[in-house]
C-alpha cells in the first residue's frame, strides 16, 4: 500500500485508505456531517500495533508491509462493518471509524474485538510474532466535532492505554491535560539537564546513638521559571519519557558528590550522602557505570554513598532492576529502602535483596513517648529490621522527646525537619560546618 499523491484515489477497492491522512480526514469529515444530520454518534479507534517497526528492523520492510496488510485484513473481517473505514496512519498506527453507533459501549466492544484479533500470532517463517496493541477511543460528538480533533484525542487516549492493563482507553480532558503536562515537563527537563540547571538541597541526618550529625540526604530541587517548583517524581517521569534517566541520575550523583566533597574540605564535615532513586530507574543498567564513574571522579568511598530506593514493588516484577541492584551492591555502596507505601508482606522478599538500611515514617505517632501501643509497633519494626541486618532511619520525627524515645527503642538514625530542614549547600555549611 503506497503513500498517496493528490491524484491518487482516496481508497483502495476494499475501502482501505493509504498512509496519507488527508483522504482519511476528508472521509471522516463526511461521516461526521452524516451523524450531525441524523443526530447519531460515531467513534474513532486509534490502534497502535506495536510490532511492525521491529519486524522492519529484523526481517525488512517487505515483511513489515505483509504484516501491516494482515492487520488491515483482520480488522475488516473481524471488527468492522461494510460502511466503516480503516486507514494506515503510520508504520504502526491504524485508524478505524465506526460510522454509526448507538453509544460508547459499542466502541468499547469493537476495541476489545480488535485486541482479540491482533493478539493472535503473526507467522514469519517458523517464528511466532505477537503484536502488543494499544487502542484509544475518540467519540463524536462527546469528544469533538472536527476530524482532526477526534483523531488527536483518540491518539491521546492510545498513549494512555499503553500503560493500562486492559490496553484500551477513551479520551478524557483530564488525561489530555496530563499528557500535555508530561510533554512540557519532558522538554523542560531536557533543557535543564543540558544546561546543568538543576539544584540540590541537603537535609541533615543524625546518628541517634552518638547524638551528632552523620550524613545528609540530597534532594533534587528543580525550579523552573514557568512551571515553578517541580517535584522529583515529575523530573524522573519526564526523564523516563524522554529516555534521559541515565543523564538525570548522572547529574544528581555528580552534583551531590561534588558538594559533599566540598563539605569535607571546606567545613570539616565528613558525611555520608543519601540519594533517592525510584526503582524503575534501575531498569537502566548503565546506572552502575554512572555510579562507579561518579565515585571515582569525586574520590568518594563507596560506603559513604547511600542509594535510597522507592517504589520497591517493581523489584518483584522486573529481573533487570533486581540485577542492577545487585551490581550496585557489588560496588560497595549502601542500599536503603525508602518506600512509605511498602506493605509489611513485602519484607519477606525484600529480605532477599541486598539492602542494608530502611527508612520508616513515624509522623503518624504524634506522642510516641506517651503512646505505649505506638511505641511497641515501632519497636517491633526496628527489631525486625535489625534481624534482617538493616539499619533504621526514622523520618517525620516531631521533637526531642520523640527522638529520645526512638533512641531507647533502638532506632539508628533520624532525619527530621525540626532538627534541620533541607538547606542549600551554603546554608548547610554555615549551620553545620566547623570552619
Mean pLDDT: 83
Q: What shape does the CA trace take?
A: elongated
- Judged by helices, strands and strand pairing, the structural class is alpha/beta
- Please tally the β strands and state the result: 17
CATH architecture group name of the largest domain = Alpha-Beta Barrel
Taking the sheet with the most strands, its summary is:
8 strands, mixed, barrel
The spatial strand order of the largest sheet comes to 9-10-12-13-14-15-16-17
Tell me the β content.
15-25%
What does this protein look like?
The chain has 435 residues and is α/β, with parallel strands linked by helices. The chain has 2 domains: 16-171, Alpha-Beta Plaits (2-Layer Sandwich), CATH 3.30.70.270; 185-432, TIM Barrel, CATH 3.20.20.450. Helix content is 44%, strand content 22%. It has 14 helices and 17 strands. The strands form 3 sheets. The protein has an 8-stranded mixed beta barrel with strand order 9-10-12-13-14-15-16-17, surrounded by 6 helices. It has a 6-stranded mixed beta sheet with strand order 1-3-4-2-7-8, sandwiched between helices. The protein has a two-stranded antiparallel ribbon with strand order 5-6. Helix 13 links the parallel strand 16 (391-395) and strand 17 (413-415).
List the helices and strands and how they pair.
Blueprint (H helix, E strand, L loop, with lengths): L15 E2 L3 H18 L2 E8 L3 H8 L1 H18 L6 E4 L4 E9 L2 H15 L3 E3 L2 E3 L4 E7 L6 H15 L6 E3 L2 H22 L4 E9 L4 E13 L3 E3 L1 H10 L3 H23 L4 E7 L8 H11 L7 E6 L8 H12 L3 E4 L8 H5 L6 E5 L10 H16 L3 E5 L4 H9 L4 E3 L9 H8 L3
Parallel strand pairs: 1-3, 7-8, 10-12, 12-13, 13-14, 14-15, 15-16, 16-17
Antiparallel strand pairs: 2-4, 2-7, 3-4, 5-6, 9-10, 9-17, 10-11
Amino acid at each position: 500500500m503506497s503513500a498517496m499523491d493528490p491524484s491518487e484515489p482516496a481508497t483502495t477497492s476494499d475501502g482501505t485508505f493509504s498512509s496519507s491522512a488527508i483522504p482519511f480526514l476528508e472521509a471522516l469529515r463526511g461521516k461526521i456531517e452524516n451523524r450531525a444530520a441524523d443526530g447519531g454518534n460515531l467513534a474513532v479507534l486509534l490502534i497502535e500495533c506495536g510490532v511492525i517497526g521491529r519486524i522492519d528492523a529484523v526481517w525488512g520492510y517487505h515483511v513489515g508491509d505483509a504484516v501491516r496488510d494482515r492487520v488491515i485484513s483482520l480488522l475488516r473481517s473481524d471488527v468492522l462493518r461494510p460502511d466503516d473505514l480503516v486507514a494506515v496512519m503510520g508504520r504502526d498506527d491504524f485508524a478505524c471509524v465506526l460510522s454509526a453507533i448507538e453509544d460508547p459501549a459499542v466502541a468499547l466492544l469493537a476495541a476489545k474485538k480488535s485486541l482479540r484479533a491482533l493478539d493472535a500470532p503473526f507467522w514469519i517463517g517458523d517464528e511466532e510474532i505477537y503484536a502488543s496493541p494499544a487502542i484509544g477511543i475518540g467519540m463524536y460528538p462527546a469528544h469533538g466535532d472536527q476530524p482532526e480533533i477526534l483523531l488527536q484525542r483518540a491518539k491521546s487516549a492510545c498513549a494512555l492505554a499503553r500503560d493500562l492493563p486492559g490496553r484500551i482507553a477513551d479520551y478524557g480532558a483530564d488525561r489530555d491535560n496530563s499528557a500535555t503536562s508530561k510533554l512540557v515537563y519532558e522538554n523542560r527537563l531536557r533543557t535543564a539537564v543540558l544546561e546543568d540547571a538543576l539544584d540540590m538541597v541537603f537535609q541533615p541526618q543524625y546518628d541517634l546513638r552518638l547524638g551528632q550529625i552523620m550524613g545528609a540526604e540530597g534532594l533534587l530541587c528543580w525550579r523552573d521559571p514557568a512551571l515553578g517548583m517541580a517535584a522529583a517524581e515529575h523530573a524522573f517521569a519526564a526523564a523516563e519519557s524522554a529516555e534521559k534517566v541515565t543523564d538525570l541520575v548522572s547529574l544528581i550523583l555528580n552534583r551531590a558528590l561534588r558538594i559533599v566533597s566540598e563539605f569535607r574540605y571546606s567545613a570539616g564535615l565528613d558525611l555520608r550522602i543519601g540519594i533517592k532513586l525510584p526503582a524503575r530507574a534501575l531498569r537502566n543498567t548503565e546506572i552502575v557505570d554512572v555510579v562507579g564513574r561518579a565515585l571515582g571522579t569525586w574520590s568518594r568511598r563507596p560506603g559513604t554513598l547511600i542509594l535510597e530506593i522507592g517504589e520497591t514493588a517493581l523489584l518483584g516484577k522486573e529481573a533487570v532492576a533486581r540485577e542492577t541492584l545487585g551490581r550496585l551492591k557489588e560496588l560497595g555502596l549502601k542500599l536503603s529502602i525508602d518506600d512509605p507505601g511498602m506493605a509489611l508482606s513485602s519484607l519477606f522478599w525484600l529480605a532477599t535483596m541486598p539492602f542494608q538500611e530502611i527508612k520508616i515514617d513515624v509522623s503518624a505517632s504524634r506522642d510516641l513517648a506517651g503512646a505505649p501501643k505506638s511505641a511497641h509497633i515501632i519497636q517491633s519494626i526496628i527489631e525486625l529490621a535489625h534481624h534482617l541486618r538493616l539499619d533504621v532511619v526514622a523520618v517525620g520525627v516531631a521533637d526531642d522527646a520523640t527522638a529520645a524515645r526512638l533512641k531507647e527503642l533502638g532506632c539508628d538514625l533520624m532525619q527530621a525537619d525540626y532538627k534541620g530542614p533541607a538547606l542549600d549547600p551554603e546554608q548547610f555549611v554555615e549551620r553545620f560546618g566547623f570552619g
